[in-house]
Amino acid sequence: MPSAALARPRPRTDAASVDGVQAALAYARANGGRFVEELKALVRFPSVGSEPAHAAEVRRCAAWLAAHLDSLGLRARLVETSGHPLVRADWRGAPGRPTLLVYGHYDVQPADAADGWHSPPFEPTLRGDALYGRGASDDKGQLWAHVKAVESWLRTAGRLPVNLVFLFEGEEESGSGGMLGYLARRGPSLGADAAVISDMPMRDARTPAITLSMRGTLGMEIEVRGPSHDLHSGIFGGAVANPLHVLSDLVARLHGDDGRVAIPGFYDAVALLPPAERAALRRAGPDDAEMLREAGLSAGWGEPGWTEYERTTLRPSVDVHGIAGGYAGDGVKAVIPTRAAAKLSFRLAPGQDPARVERLVRRWVAATPVPGARVRVRTLSRARPVRVDARHPAVAAAAGAARAAFGRAPVFVRSGGTLPVAAVLSADLGLPVVLMGFALRDDGMHAPDEKMHLPIFHRAVETSIRMLAAMSRLSPSRTGRR
Amino acid sequence: MPSAALARPRPRTDAASVDGVQAALAYARANGGRFVEELKALVRFPSVGSEPAHAAEVRRCAAWLAAHLDSLGLRARLVETSGHPLVRADWRGAPGRPTLLVYGHYDVQPADAADGWHSPPFEPTLRGDALYGRGASDDKGQLWAHVKAVESWLRTAGRLPVNLVFLFEGEEESGSGGMLGYLARRGPSLGADAAVISDMPMRDARTPAITLSMRGTLGMEIEVRGPSHDLHSGIFGGAVANPLHVLSDLVARLHGDDGRVAIPGFYDAVALLPPAERAALRRAGPDDAEMLREAGLSAGWGEPGWTEYERTTLRPSVDVHGIAGGYAGDGVKAVIPTRAAAKLSFRLAPGQDPARVERLVRRWVAATPVPGARVRVRTLSRARPVRVDARHPAVAAAAGAARAAFGRAPVFVRSGGTLPVAAVLSADLGLPVVLMGFALRDDGMHAPDEKMHLPIFHRAVETSIRMLAAMSRLSPSRTGRR
Predict the structure, then answer these.
(1) For the whole model, what pTM was predicted?
(2) ipTM
């Protein structure tokens, strides 16, 4: 539905006044215990979007969310997609004010109690000052902070400082297909001036962080076909090209001896950061020792001249995730397999374009044919990198809110990960995308004993309350919409 | 039991006379139909040695064989091993004559009717002039030809032209563990002067073949360990050595650009064939077109200067059979795996020693360390190559018997495959090993619709009858035992 139809004009009041913020904060403090109880109800849904057996629970979770948002006074509904439904909820009562899009996802990673959970993954449990349960931080706890901030405004001022649309999806952990399709079709009609995504870690428990860039991806499969059927290596070994060898040779040649990706032209479009920004990033991000400790390694490896953190954020990379073909189980089967295939993905630095890199890879693969081997490249996924302008007023508004809530200015970091939704919001819809998360790096976002640190949750609610006010002071024209 | 205890001296008669051969051949012709019915009974046992579920059937098959051999007048029994039992049957009634060891195996490859069998694999079925069923040619049909040749002699002359020991195992398709252990412990006490193995194809349906060499093997696993746990390639891609990359690099460097194995010293001990023998081998073996047709390929690949057949028989090779680690299933899991491992095997040409090659490989792997990656090499199997002297009288005896039975002299070929038992008989026991098989290349030895061509089966019985006579004319001292 076009945003115009959703706007319900009301008498304009200064909802973003200091008094408005204080009232909303007081409400949040008074109701914080209930907020957590409601979050427990949300975590209780086993909304594992990637597992068909859970499809009904995913939908029940979406319906529960929509009903809750409706009860708060938003215009909420389920939007059907090819997969799990989106939850969309609008509040359009501030004509002339900017419109903020808040993205989140209510689907969660799979969870098996046998993997080492200390309490059942879908029975949210308080231990110490954390709430344990699958999805507690990724992303139910984070989206819930924004929902409760909106409630705090609506239950006190009776209105929000800005127009707002929540878009929550149920397929983030499995490709975001429905959300990407919806944004492609309906994105412009949302009338958003800025977007906020809270689905990433803070720097540490005391230091909020705003992410200024994310890497894109190019997922590919390289398949090598050889003999028409598996051959016995006794009978044919030495006389035919083994697809696993041809494939290994391609994988080996992805990198030069210097650790750089060796595909001609690969680095051409990579954006270089000004020295001052690079120095700031080095200070803000983890150092080599911290990175290696997390990886369980005594030595790093990669492109010379960059720190471990820079290698994973400013620089592109390529990794093979698995190689199929032949037999690698118990014992030995002496086969020369008819085919071998590698799944791999490039991580693309800001400046790189997945489609252009794809052409470079295809050309590179075709340049070294091997007799008796046919090589085919299949593209599995493409997502563009994301860049956020640190000087954008929307970023400044979020940073100010976080500083006030946490008593410490957020650091500006960069991520090596990929968020296709952020790329679409940024590149296709031209929105400034505020990437500000409230998880901790050790919250177990894709691991057992996932948790949400509750003191942080309450500060996230406060951050969101303050951010809504701060965003209201921007005129729509200042948000840089194009 | 030592062979001396098995010898039952009898009055010496010229059992190997022309009359003796003719009587045995007449008996075989008269009883050929029954021989095939008995072979059907043998094929009916689902003696799949590699599948624990079939263990009882494997033992029933062994017991049936031993009882049959006992009924023919041999001293037959089961020999227990760590795995399936051996069937050993001795006839020691010709003191002063040579002793022939005839090896075979009664275990069979797995068979699933769903793989494309036109009749159930363990319900032997006559179609055209072939008997279809799992094991019909590999190796039940081939060992049965020797058993029926022995019967033909015993039921006519009342004795054999030579002393004889049958050794049939139930683990050939799964490593020959029990047999190799037995030969190591008891081999010398068998008192054999020559061995015969029929477990390989003829050149074609009209042309028998004697194999003059087989390649050895060195089975290995190369494992690369990296980070302490699977890492997310978004968070760490570009900053750590990916075990799959390190492994692929090793696999790629196994070969030089010229198609030769690039491990220093690898070819040092490879025996070179005199030009005349090489020319004879080229004429006897398949040409490139035939090899490529069997592989379903339009182009070969490998060491320059050798034909496809030479590459697989005279020259060593190495093939990777599978690569484990990470995720290669449906979709993509963006992991940098904690480990990757390749199963591979070298095929060793006559002259090469598995232990020496193993040392070369370990040294080569250790020569190129990668920061953050630990490489471990594990040896899974070792078998020496086998060489047979074409001029040995035992080979001449077998060749003459085959020429008489098939009306065509056997060609001398070489095999790229491996038979650990043959290596032990040849290198450890010092026996001339006659490698003369009666299968056809298209008999489906490890495939659906395995069959035995019955006209060839009957000629194999005749070959064996004649060979027993021919071997008797060798004095034990002439058989080259060392």
Answers:
(1) 0.90
(2) 0.90
